[in-house]
Write a structure and sequence with these properties.
Keywords: Hydrolase. Belongs to the Nudix hydrolase family. This is NUDIX hydrolase. This protein is of the alpha+beta class. It has a domain of 128 residues: Nucleoside Triphosphate Pyrophosphohydrolase. 30% of the residues lie in helices and 32% in strands. The chain contains 5 helices and 10 strands, in the order H-H-E-E-E-E-H-E-E-E-E-E-E-H-H. Strands 1, 4, 5, 6 and 9 form a 5-stranded mixed β-sheet that branches. Strands 3-2-10 form a 3-stranded antiparallel β-sheet. The chain has a two-stranded antiparallel sheet with strand order 7-8. The longest helix has 15 residues. The radius of gyration is 16 Å and the shape is globular.
Length: 189
Amino acid sequence: MELIRKIEAFVPWNDQEAQDKEELLRLLRSGGEFYSRENPTAHLTASAWVVSPDRQKVLMAYHNLYDSWAWLGGHADGERNLLLKAEQEVREETGLSDVHPVSDRIYSLEILTVNGHEKRGQYVSSHLHLNVTYLFEADPALPVRSKPDENSRVAWFPLWEAVERSTEPWFRERIYPKLNRKLSPFLSE
């Protein structure tokens, strides 16, 4: 399986990524179906950390469901190429016409908890997002727009302001700061 090979090749940046890498590999090797939301306990998601060419800004959307500024991405929903899925989600959620991956390598791995919630009038039980993150680049001068069924605003922020804009504690404390710190090797690319 291609995703297993990509995760095996991924070099964790911290303990969270190391632990999540091992658990992701264990789950994917178990033979369970994780590419679809048909698995109500855990399913794959693809996220994008979209930065400006100078790596000084990040693109965020105000996510309606979580009532917070957040990164871009979504459920795999059957798509096995998570890099392609992350790019599709960026284009759909922001209207960006020109966005491209900085690398085809996995940028970050996370297993994220999602509390039970209402979505389009239906209750969704608490579950896990088995998340694969890719690093993307786009020009902040390009026009962006919201996707009203998912987000109400889209905006570029200086890296650390993006962290502060999130109201989700785990993302503010652990995920977004990590993604910003991991940019160092990409500053000259």
